[in-house]
Amino acid sequence: MDINLTHYLAAMAYNSAYIALFIAIIALAKLSYNLATPYNTTNQLTDNANTALGLSIGGYLGAITIIYGFVLAGPSKGLLTDLINVSLYSVLGMVLLTCSRFLNDKLLLRLFCNQEQLINRQNEAVGLVQAANYMAAALIIGGALTGEGTWLSAIVFYALGQLLLIMFAKGYDHLTAFDLHEQLEKGNKAVAMSFSGTMLALAIILCHALLGGFHTWQQSLSLFFIDALFGFLILPIVRYLVDKIIFSKISLDQAMHDNNTAVAVIESSIAISVAVIITIAI
């Protein structure tokens, strides 16, 4: 009994180090978010009760957690080495997620200023999409860091993932009867939910290609683009089936245009669920 208790306490102490590091990483992530913005996030959240910014920061912190979890789940090289590696990769994640904010503003949602929408208009639809973009990027970064992933592989696959998300956004805009930017600028939460759910579903599929670990560039890139093509094909089909079977009595596009968040929740949930099942089945 004494031996088992000793091992148990040792394991608790071992795991407590990772929990303490995670708390420190979250605090550092919040600080880095503040330093990368021209506005005072504390005032926005407390004095102005800015839910749009809260959604964005929540997505950012969630993304840091995803990256932390992926790195932590990798092969152990000893407590001290693990703590150093997790810290370094988490900092890399913060840098890349700050890049995501810039790309989200300049390329993904380029027809309006994200900062103006978040701060001046407190547009929760834009905040939701920005949060989803952070977490989608984190899934790709985390997938790239599994196995024998390196800093270089994480950056390369992050860049490719962001490019594919931008391409997917353009394709999504063409396939729907409404204008994505126009509806988001109007604060349409249903459109934001639909787009965010589908974007996360694509990121889950892309992450799947990287979960086996990094072996060779040719193999990893091939799997990544095959899964990307599969995602580009299957997600519009899923949306079409949701429209024709589950919501056969209404038009899905019309429901999104009318800001029907109830329908949007179901649609985005199905897209994410299908992506998860794909990663399990394949």
Automatic annotation (TrEMBL):
InterPro entries the record matches: DUF350 (IPR007140)
Record keywords, A-Z: Cell membrane, Membrane, Transmembrane, Transmembrane helix
Lineage: superkingdom: Bacteria
Protein name in UniProt: Uncharacterized membrane protein YjfL, UPF0719 family
Family of this protein: Belongs to the UPF0719 family.
Topology of the protein relative to the lipid bilayer: Multi-pass membrane protein
Record-linked PANTHER family: UPF0719 INNER MEMBRANE PROTEIN YJFL (PTHR40043)
Record's keyword annotation contains Ligase: no
Annotated localization: Cell membrane
The keyword Lipid biosynthesis is assigned to this record: no
Transmembrane regions: 12-31, 52-71, 83-104, 125-145, 151-169, 190-211, 223-242, 262-281
